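Q: I'm writing up a methods section and want to include an example of the input and output format. Could you take the sequence below and give the corresponding predicted structure tokens, formatted cleanly so I can copy it straight into the document?
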Amino acid sequence: MKKYNHITKEQRYTISVCLKKKMSLSKIANLINVNKSTVSREIKRNSNMYRHYVAIDAQQFSEMKKSIPRRPRKLSKADWQEIEQCLKRHWSPKTIAGVREREGKACVSVEWMYHIIRRDKARGGTLYTFLPHHIKHRRRPVGSRIPIFAKTKILAIFAQQCCTSRLNLHIKLSLRRGNKSCGDALWKAKNLLT
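A: Here is the clean output for your methods example:
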């Protein structure tokens, strides 16, 4: 396993000076003994709002980013109880997340709150009853498709209501668009009529 080192203050200063001299990223990388992509990433991440790389600003940005945790660790029981109290006041998860973020408190994402509410409902809990709206229930899993035989039945009904010339036009258009399964289903529907 490789060990990665952060860029030091001296290396940032060297990058800044070399950029002012208009040196290439490869030469800068060789000079400070890091990879070219590391230099590129450093410049991209720690440039100021005018897209200029200044060593002092870059160091401050880096230290600031280190002090902010990437994501909050596990919420305490008190935090979860506060979130549940907000839900019982009929607040939506989006409102709860926004208020907690504005107040600087640790919080989880809206999607995760809905996940917890659904899990609570599956276990017989009542958190879902406090939502200001109903949780959408999907009868089929996301991404599943209608089988071809169902398409054929639907298209057969459609074909009975339309004239044959119009059906031929639909078959040609769908095949031109590269929708082979739809074209096959339309062709089967036409054959059912004849």
